[in-house]
Hints:
Layout: H1 5-11, H2 13-16, E1 27-28, E2 39-43, E3 46-50, E4 54-55, H3 58-63, H4 70-82, H5 89-95, H6 103-107, H7 114-127, H8 134-146, H9 159-163, E5 177-180, H10 183-187, H11 190-202, E6 207-208, H12 218-223, H13 226-239, E7 245-248, H14 251-264, E8 274-277, H15 278-287, E9 291-293, E10 303-306, H16 314-327, H17 331-359, E11 363-364, H18 383-386, H19 388-404, E12 409-412, H20 415-427, E13 433-436, H21 437-443, E14 447-449, H22 455-459
Helix pairs in contact: 1-7, 4-7, 11-21, 15-17, 16-17, 19-20
Amino acid sequence: MAKTGMERLQELKKEIFKCIHCKACKFAYSGEPDREGIGEYAGKQGTVLYEGMVDACPAGIEYGWEAFWNAGKIWIARSILTGDLEFTEEVRDVIMPCITCGQCSAQCDNKIPTVDIIESLRAACIESGVPMIEKHELVDRLVKELNNPYGGKAEERFKWAKDAGLGKYVDNKDAKIAYYVGCTASYRQIEVAITTAKLFELLGMNFTIIGDEVCCGSPFFRIGAVDTAQELMNKNLEAFKNVKMLYFSCAGCYRTFTIDYPKWMPEGEELPFKTQHAFELVARLIQQEKIKFKPNKELKGKVVTYHDPCHTGRHFAVDMEQDMIRESKNLLIDSRKIKEKIEEWYEVPRIILRKLAEDVGIVFKEMYRIKLDSMCCGAGGGVRAGYPEFSLRTASLRCDEANAVGADILTTECPFCWRNLSDANDMYNHGMKVMGILQMITEYNLLDMAEKPKEDDFLTPSIRDIE
Length: 467
């Protein structure tokens, strides 16, 4: 039987009561007050200091007062569990403007799974009878009617594939490897879907795009519409049950299948397939010296920086950390292994970027806040749909940081981040080009194969699954 939000909240009770209200969760680099950085930079959103510990919670920065910072939301969860507070629309309006970026969890010395708590709190709020905000009700209605939150027709979900000459991969019955495209890449950022599928084709992968694919459910797990999310989850588990490996180009979809589905599936059930992001495959093939890149005059000398999506970055890192903590018999000794595993994970996209610098001639330059301390793009947690002005101001803050290192190109590996950063880049005149790493490889025809990959290369597990 499916779990309720309140049941998940009860399961997390011990974690909720670990919070000592120390406020470390407000900052990036909360343990490094002397960290050197860029210094002051007068960006589009006003002068920001990129030095030492800096404010990092988007909701706290936007709204200012205590309840909107993570520590305030944890106290709300505690008060709900103890019966000192009841769910109301006022409570909803405090817990909803949170991008669930996980920065708070990354900074927490008590290792509290804050995102899990906030999402469960939202689910319990809806279950109590408090209505969703109007814009979330709209996307919930659309996905129930059309299996996607954008209002796109089912028959148009893979129109991009047919138009790009990739139609033969839709419902390719011979393939045991599938590409889960997701709603954003199918109906909005189709260039992400096209470049990913073309890259797979260039690599010689025999893959399928399943015609029965529906929304992964990510927006609905985030906003607390768990019943809707679980319905979508069950449809996808049925649609993809016969594949061995499922690849993603969307960070949110990848996180949802890999982290959320197992938490919300009936106890004892496991995913019937392995999951992996496309950038993991490319990085692995670079390490195996099976692919390299061609020089490119147009890109040579361009300063490129990278935005870590929260869903492939912090959310996976914190999930790996939680798993290793649960399995640890001596956390003092194993803490070093945890840090090494997280660092290895964050290096995956950077393997590609450093190879692009070596072969193509780009200049790869990191922003101040990176990896576990990376600033959110502002799009997640239902905020882009529900609070668009807040969302885009947050994206502009991130673009400010890219401007501060002189970036010509701001890259990422998530169509949702791509959309929000691109919109803020245009709206606030940041003057950069925003694109995905794999998009750059395909659109500039950079791929140069030294050795054709074999099927086993495509079925190799993610480094997450390798001890």
